[in-house]
Amino acid sequence: MELLAIVDITTPNLPRLSSVMFLVAIPRSLKEAKGLLLSCIRDPNPIVFFEPKWLYRLAVEEVPEDDYMTPLSEAEVIRQGCDITLVGWGAQLSIMEQACLDAEKISHEAPVTGGFGAEISASNLERCFSRI
């Protein structure tokens, strides 16, 4: 399973920002917040930096005192794999990491076609394909 963290994106959820092509930085941890903020300050282009409040309320992490920058416009591979790729940013990533751990515990043994898992997959595809 592969989990990618997108640390700066142009998203359709922010139509005014994405139409003028601002970079948007959304950290997933305190350590990354410091590195991204320093990168945003030093970058010559305008960047919108989102500061999720939950980072300061819930996160417990050692943040180095030294000066470092987190690369902009570059995805971070959090977990390498080959079966599925999950892409997310910000608060989603901790939920996605937990989903990866839970998925490792799930086992489905069935024929290639006509199995229970295939039926669940087909039902999901019928109902959700247009939302993908």
Automatic annotation (TrEMBL):
GO MF annotation list: oxidoreductase activity
Coiled-coil parts of chain: none
SUPFAM superfamilies per record: Thiamin diphosphate-binding fold (THDP-binding) (SSF52518), TK C-terminal domain-like (SSF52922)
InterPro entries: THDP-binding, Transketo_C/PFOR_II
Cofactors named for this entry: thiamine diphosphate
Keyword set, alphabetical order: Oxidoreductase
Gene Ontology biological process: branched-chain amino acid catabolic process; response to nutrient
Protein name: Transketolase C-terminal domain-containing protein
